[in-house]
Amino acid sequence: MKKSVLLAALLAVAAAASAAVLKADPAKTSVSAVFKQMNVPIESKFKKHNIVIDYNAAAPDTSKATVEIETASLDLGDADMNKEVAKKEWFNSAQFPKASFTSSAIKSAGPGKLNVTGKLSIKGKVSDVTFPITVKAEGGKQVFEGALPIKRLAYNIGEGEWKDTSMVADEVTIKFHVVAQ
């Protein structure tokens, strides 16, 4: 009896030790929006984000992730354009300063691959999303990479005259490269 209790306690400690709350390294992590403007591909990075991943490589289905992105931190490469995208017609950063994602399920999809499901919230609109990511250990850190395609109009990004998708396409891909420890 004592041996089975001791074995169970050791297994619980080992399982807890293999799980780790990881914080993204902002200097090595990137989150960007890829879209077409007048049919020209553009990739713009969000400069401010907070990403926390509670990752267990041995049991990925027990893992969790939360992401917060400051919408006004999108850098389009021009100060005036950066101010424009923070306005009501686009992100409305005054009323909705953050976009967020909270996972509800993380499932293994083979070696180094995961499928992530959760709630994406942008500009007050919340939807269920699922997307694949890759994960690998690199230099004592975990590297998570993936892309999430969305439709910007589903989140009211681009209101009024900006609903016209001939200028800015409806399709946007949120790309991320997260280096965490």
Textual characterization of the structure:
By secondary structure, this protein is mainly beta. The protein has a single domain, classed as Lipocalin (Beta Barrel). It contains two helices and eleven strands; from the N terminus they run αββββββαβββββ. An eleven-stranded antiparallel beta sheet has the order 1-4-5-7-8-9-10-11-2-3-6. The two termini are 38 Å apart.
CATH superfamily, by name, is: Lipid/polyisoprenoid-binding, YceI-like
CATH architecture heading: Beta Barrel
Order of helices and strands: HEEEEEEHEEEEE
Query: What is the radius of gyration?
Result: 19 Å
- Share of β-strand residues: over 45%
In whole angstroms, the N-to-C terminal distance is: 38 Å
Major beta-sheet overview: 11 strands, antiparallel
**What is the total tally of β strands?**
11
Count of alpha and pi helical runs: 2
CATH C-level: Mainly Beta
Number of domains: 1
Low-confidence stretches: 1-18
